[in-house]
Amino acid sequence: MTRSLTQSVLTQLALLPIRLIGRMKWAQARRLTGGLAPVLQRLMVRRRRIVDQNLAWCFPDHSPAQRAQWTDEHFKHLAEAIGEIAVAWSAQQPASLELGEVTGVEHIQACQAQGHGVLLVTGHTVCMESTARLLGEATPASGTYRPLRNPVLERFQNRGRSRFAEHMFSRDDLRGMVRYLRQGGALWYAPDQDFGPALSEFVPFFGIPTATLRALPELARLGRAKVVGVYPIKDPNTGRVKVQVEPAWDDFPSSDRTADLRRYNAFLERHIRQAPSQYWWLHRRFKTDPEGGRRY
Q1: How many angstroms separate the CA atoms of 68 and 35, rounded?
Q2: Is the pLDDT of residue 226 over 70?
Q3: Structural domains in the chain (count)
Q4: Quick check: is 236 in a domain?
Q5: I need a labelling partner for 251 at 20 to 30 A (CA). Which of 50, 101, 262, 265 fits?
């Protein structure tokens, strides 16, 4: 058996529990996987340290006890997300019946009525897949993704997302994204990752100079698109997600790229502060410093 075939078989076996969970109701799946939170914390020792460090940098004025509570909540959300993702990629029934709601869709529709494509800017959160499912049911939209090393897992992921997305664009398919935006499409885009200084500019995020992708204003400019902010907040008690779609940003992109990137980070920070444990703190968001060194 070749290495690729072995990987394919093992991946399909590993996906069996996910497929089974995907047949459950949202609340059932969330409860089932939510109990894995302590296990995740024990197994993901390095990632736990990253979460702790990120929270310490971003919320230095809060007590260690408060930050520790947010870390525990974060891993609880992550555990619940396993079940939520399984259902999001599998469920036939509309998610809005159980999962939550989207407010502000009219802002997307207004831009499209004026002949513009819409770049839906957001960030990585613990309920990102649930949010995408809700938004895809509320209005036609496509997404972007980072190609995976495992082709079986990538097909499973993209097939699941295609239940609620018009199309999934690889992050390298700039031409396809630009064409889609120029045709009036709405494209989900979360550029809040550190891809190094070659692709980024350092602008403040929680007061820290942070490598922020230059591609955001450029994609909006090339696609002749309006930029609309989207952010979800999950009710920790009910699990329901409220996705807020904001009015289109005026004068974006502007003639000042640094100001544009600051505006994006400020948008994220404003929403993260509403529910600190729900941002994707597992990311090494502050990996690169302006001198080229590593912070982790």
Answers
A1: 18
A2: yes
A3: 1
A4: yes
A5: 101
